[in-house]
Amino acid sequence: MKTLSTAVAALLLASGAQAADMMDPAKLRQTVDQFLQVQSAGLPGKVTVTVGNVDQRMKLANCPAPEAFLMPGTKPWGKTTVGVRCTAPSPWTVYVPANVSVLGNYIAAAAPVPQGQPIVESQLATMQGDLTTLPASIATDKAQVLGRTSNIAISAGLPLRLDSLRKQSVVQTGQLVRLVSNGPGFKVSAEAKAGANAAEGQVVQVRTTGGQNISGIARAGGLVEVAF
Fold first, then answer.
1. CA-CA 20 to 30 A from 29: which of 56, 133, 162, 200?
2. In this predicted model, what pLDDT tens digit does every residue of 23-80 receive, in sequence order?
3. From the first residue on, what is the mean pLDDT of each consecutive set of 10 residues in the chain (228 residues)?
């Protein structure tokens, strides 16, 4: 009986020692969670990190300092995969699924937005949702879209994407504009004709009355600024 008890105790001790030499899956998940919390700290909204399960069948050597990383081309946004590597005492690398949700405000159409017409505030509504599930380049502030025009017609309820909007032209093709340039001790002003449509801040080419082609920055009021 004593021999049997001794054998069982020895078996339990060996099993415990073996478990102590194995990497705890909970520590792996904690490493991933802490890594994603840091990586997503600057995202615009309330961030929630969910770490997926680790395969319990994996027998990884215990690692005193596991290092988490994102694979090239991935970011802490929506469904992602985080790698965890160990360099010593036994090198290994595993990949753990995770999800980063970002609850924040976005701008949607409160009423139909016709194509090509300036967007006004009555057509907009501020909504809240998981930004990671919405289209890329989503508008998050009304100031980003007011006064712009849409390349497509937008139905009520749909989010507004910045890549489908454009600023209103402040300079029109063929328009007579005032070419201006300021510098230390001088100011130049001349008349020219715009060669294309341009929004505020865009580069536009103009042609002077003397036939010279010059590029400048379009400004409201039919002005084009040139730096010499």
1. 133
2. 999 999 999 999 999 999 999 899 999 999 988 888 899 999 999 999 999 999 999 9
3. 46 44 92 97 93 88 95 93 94 96 96 93 96 92 92 94 88 90 81 88 89 89 85
The per-residue b/e assignment along 147-161, b for 16 or more CB within 10 angstroms, e otherwise, is: ebbbeeebeeeebbb
CATH classification for the domain delimited by 103-166, as one of 3.30.750.24, 3.40.640.10, 3.90.1210.10, 3.30.1490.270: 3.90.1210.10
Contact 73, 81 (CB under 8 A): no
Q: Write down the H helix ranges in the chain.
A: 2-20, 25-39
The amino acid at residue 52 is: G
